[in-house]
Amino acid sequence: MTKDILMIVGDFGEDYEIMVPFQTLQAVGHRVDAVCPDKEEGETVKTAIHDFRGDQTYLEERGHDFALTATMDEIDPADYDALVVPGGRAPEYLRTHEEVIETVQHFFEAEKPVAALCHGPQILAAAGVLDGYEMTAYPAVRPEVEAAGCSWVDGVVRDGNLVTGQAWPDHPEWLAEFMTLLGDEITHGDPVAAADD
Description:
- By secondary structure, the chain is α/β, with parallel strands linked by helices.
- The protein has one domain: Class I glutamine amidotransferase (GATase) domain (Rossmann fold, 3-Layer(aba) Sandwich), CATH 3.40.50.880.
- The protein has helices at about 15-25, 90-95, 100-110, 120-125, 140-145, 170-180, 190-195, and strands at about 5-10, 15, 30-35, 45-50, 60-65, 80-85, 115, 135, 150, 155-160, 160-165.
- The strands form 3 sheets. A 6-stranded mixed β-sheet has the order 3-1-6-7-11-10, sandwiched between helices.
- The longest helix has 13 residues, at about 15-25.
């Protein structure tokens, strides 16, 4: 069944963590609106690509221009069935926008599905919605989410309405858990064998 999904993005959000969920959720039949405070439908955000090359932290390079599909000031969170909060650098400033905080709080108060990845949980922590959850995030965000009242778990975790992952390499498991929560039927098969049939 088609769901209406809201995604909150911003400049220098992680490219893969915006593009992959946005396109994957559409590919299985959901409608996804991507919004950003202070920007309108049709405007773009600049993404960043983060890579892990064995350094103490990730490397950041310029990604793509990602077009917004709706205007945040004009949407009503009550019209959406689920929320996606990607990571990257955007969450550190998106969490300072009251409309972002209120939107996130709506999804938790209504117990709607929420998927957050990497630095995305910084927004959830700022919204004060993590108390009592088991979850994960990018490891450098662990002190923030634990201070917000959650229990840390390594790897992808689903706790009630919340699905979290540590970074874009978690996409297969993270998206599968989120889509299962949305009511999609996820099956894992041998793609080579399937192609031979």
